[in-house]
Amino acid sequence: MKKLKDNSGSTMVLAIFIMAIVTIITISFLIQSGNQVKSTLKLEESLKKKYQVEGQIEEELAKFLSNIKINTIKYDINKTEKIGYKIEYNKDSLTYINPVVKESDKIDKGDNYISVKENSNLDFELTIVKANENIDSNGKEFKYDDSYKIKSEIIVKIRGLNQFKNYNITYDINSWNKFN
Fold first, then answer.
1. What is the DSSP letter of 31?
2. Rounded Cα–Cα distance for residues 57 and 93 (Å)
3. Averaged over 75-98, what is the pLDDT?
4. Is the pLDDT of residue 1 over 60?
């Protein structure tokens, strides 16, 4: 009976219980840290893909804007010579391009140009679809698990075409979507 009243074993049980709790907390912390590292790496990879594709879209837009040529032309309406503008553009790599101008302002339209009257407003509706190319900034190829594509719809606006050539070219982004 004397052995049952002795408390010397309870200290060891308490120590094992505390060690078990500390071990469980440590393992939980390590698992949580590992998951956060994996999540951060996956987010970084996803952002790299996204920024690569967005950069390609920005390059397409810049190329389009820099290749717009606006020349003064003369045309006849009712045997009266008027001044108009021929706007030439490059559409080689764009997925879709649609020049939009009021029908009453349009003089002529070709495959890669449109001619308009003075003081016309012209919008280009651009749709650009790009995908990641799996090439890093050093030109080395790397492999992604999935493809990343973006479809963007952009309106390029030319305002105030006049003889003084102080027209304004701006653009608005209608949509900038991710899709696979």
1. H
2. 11
3. 85
4. no
Exposed, middle or buried: residue 107 (CB in 10 Å: 0-12, 13-18, 19+)? middle
CB 99 within 8 A of CB 124: yes
3-class secondary-structure state, position 58: helix
User: How much is the mean pLDDT over the chain?
Assistant: 84
* Contact yes or no for 88/110 (Cβ under 8 A): no
Asked whether the beta carbons of 117 and 82 are under 8 A apart, the reply is yes
Is 149 strand, coil or helix? strand
Distance, in Å, from the CA atom of 153 to the CA atom of 179, rounded to the nearest integer, reads 13
pLDDT score at 26? 96
Q: Which residues contact 87 (CB under 8 A, 6 or more apart)?
A: 68, 69, 70, 99, 113, 114, 115, 116, 122, 158
Which of 36-40, 74-78, 82-86 is least confident? 74-78
What would the two tokens of residue 177 be?
A: 């979507």
Q: Where are the beta strands (DSSP E) in the chain?
A: 69-77, 80-88, 96-100, 106-109, 113-117, 122-131, 149-159, 168-179
